[in-house]
Protein 1
Amino acid sequence: METSFLFADWLGTPLWMWLGFLGLVIAILSFDLGVLHKENKEIGVAESVKLSALYIALGLSFGAWVWWYLGSESGLAYLTGFVVEKTLALDNVFVIALIFSFFAVPRLYQHRVLFWGILGVIVLRAIMIGVGATLVAEFSWLLYIFAAFLIVTGIKMLFVKDAEPDVSNNVLVRFMRNRFNVTDGHHGEKFFVKQVNPATGKLTWFITPLFMALVMVEVADVIFAVDSVPAIFAITTDPFIVYTSNIFAILGLRALYFALAAMIHRFKYLKPALALVLVFIGSKIFVADLLGLEKFPAAFSLGITFAIIASGVAWSLIKTRETGKAA
């Protein structure tokens, strides 16, 4: 059998590596859905923490393989991207919690929404990263645009207080309610149901609030990708490293969600840390140019990024503990 096509270059990486990664992701998701969550059940905080640890271990193990097979520079770039994307994904938890609350999604079915949401993310991120990689390869100056965007975004996060998203007045929510038949309540784990339309008296398809929640979760990821995709391209322009670090960081998000949703108030100072990370990642491209370096040293990039995030997490836990004692 002819297998030479497996070694053909695709976006700078042999095709077999892309296929191997996608096969690994499919195997992980199949194990998650077919074994760990074969039956619908509520996920408690303890189980959420264990599953999150498993996904983090898988992501770091893949990073170790990248380090061994592609070299230390690629390994450091992967780990930096993984840490940054994982941290940025934490900020998404708050929005997802608001979406679930607005649509009154029972905890029993939240994992289903998050699971199908991850499948959408895998496709959407592939498209966004593929387009980004093509544009950066053709127009290298775009990296400076990405870097400037990250700096501005980070500064804005530091000094401008975000307003809590109003899901009820969201344009997409209003569009779905006006254009589609929507059920008043949930119908178990179903996204679509067939029932009598009061206006016509005929059986017709309705979308459920569970499906609307899924759509909003996907849209939320696209919005957050506007920050995360430029951030990872500012770390490395290797599409394989960009995509794999993104996906492995996001894969464990739905497992981590159930633990974080219960203690999101403990991470009060994580957002300023995220802002500083974005400013650092964006500025290091300009700093490297000023110093006459080809690129900012990967080891320093990972170390500084990790130090900022770890400091934000530690300070948050310390300050919220003191607040709790004072109360």
Note: Residues 107-138 form the longest helix (32 residues).
Protein 2
Amino acid sequence: MIDSLEVEARDGTWTFTLNRPDKLNALNAALVERVLNAVEQANAQKARLLVFRGAGKSFCAGFDLSEIDAQSEGDLVLRFIRIEMLLQAIAKSSAPTLALVHGKVFGAGVDLFSVCRHRIAAPGSVFRMPGLKFGLVLGTRRFASVVGAEKARQILEETNAFTAEEALEMHLAHKLTSPDEWEWITASVREKTQALDDVARDDLYRVLSSGQSETDLSNLVRSAARPGLKERLRSYLRTGSRAA
């Protein structure tokens, strides 16, 4: 059986590769738990750099909706909570975090990208955040802190896709590079971030942190727990989308 997450730990650099290429690396419950556990393990072992990638044609097509008929509303709420806990584990890491994305970067995939401190996209990547179509507030404040409140409102309200070039323009992506340059990018990020010792870097991340993790979680739970989540997800699926 193919592992849904490939983890490579070498010289302090932990690389996490989402490995459900047939599903465009959409996040099912098992994959979220695998990534969360791996990130917590890396943090416990004082990793020097966390890198997130996706196998196949896309980085991550978001929340996997393919099994919602077999799940209760409580199951679905818990799945979204666990995604938020994963995002918080990445955000709170004392290690630099790097996302290398390509292809489709949708929904929770954008949240994974946004929470990383260094964000690289391949030309041709496509971004979309449709979560509010089914009333879900996930990663909203973090996204707004990166691109600005007004730009975030426009994107989240209209739920339209945007290009890698637009992501660069709004500072969601820091640079556009082809995947054949990512090994060099990873080495460069690691070298630059080691200019500070561990204590100074921890202090920097702590000072810059918003300290709003509890508010983020409560906002998510409030939106996800509103009655009718499952039907809203089904309605979204009827538009022809498979992941969000």
Note: The two ends are 26 Å apart (CA to CA).
